[in-house]
């Protein structure tokens, strides 16, 4: 029986292992950092402390809005115009005025200001058509002194 002598573990072996390990770690870190930076669309609020000072005011506004009992449906039609229908207690509300913005989720496309005109059956339709893709709508609806704010994603 021939027995071979085990090879000695040298400093070169350890150096190769360490360099390979850290090369993989650095490659993963740089790849993940590049992906994070290229997909980050910006901040939600510029100053979280200042935003926190308005928190109770936002809660009261949300409570007022919930008490309106409005059910708002926003969608895109075949020509990519935003359509809005507002219901309250099963009845379509008319004489609603709406304005809003369409924002790209990643901030890569230019924002689009939206203006609305009334069409059939109390429905509102944006004058502007949106480009292809996914959009975040920020809409403000007003009827007399009642105000309703909403965010909706359409594509």
UniProtKB/TrEMBL annotation:
Pfam families: FixH. Keywords: Membrane, Transmembrane, Transmembrane helix. The chain crosses the membrane at residues 12-30. It comes from the Bacteria. This is FixH family protein.
């Amino acid at each position: 029986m021939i027995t071979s002598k085990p090879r000695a573990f040298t400093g070169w072996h350890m150096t190769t292992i360490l360099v390979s390990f850290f090369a993989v770690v650095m490659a993963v870190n740089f790849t993940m950092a590049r992906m994070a930076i290229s997909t980050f669309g910006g901040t939600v609020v510029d100053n979280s402390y200042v935003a926190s000072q308005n928190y109770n005011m936002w809660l009261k506004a949300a409570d007022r809005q919930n008490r309106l009992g409005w059910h708002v449906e926003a969608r895109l039609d075949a020509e990519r115009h935003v359509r809005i229908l507002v219901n309250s207690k099963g009845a379509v509300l008319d004489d609603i005025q709406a304005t809003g913005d369409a924002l790209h989720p990643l901030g890569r496309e230019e924002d689009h200001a939206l203006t609305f005109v009334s069409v059939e059956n109390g429905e509102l339709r944006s004058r502007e058509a949106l480009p292809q893709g996914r959009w975040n709508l920020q809409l403000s609806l007003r009827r007399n002194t009642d105000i309703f704010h909403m965010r909706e994603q359409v594509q």
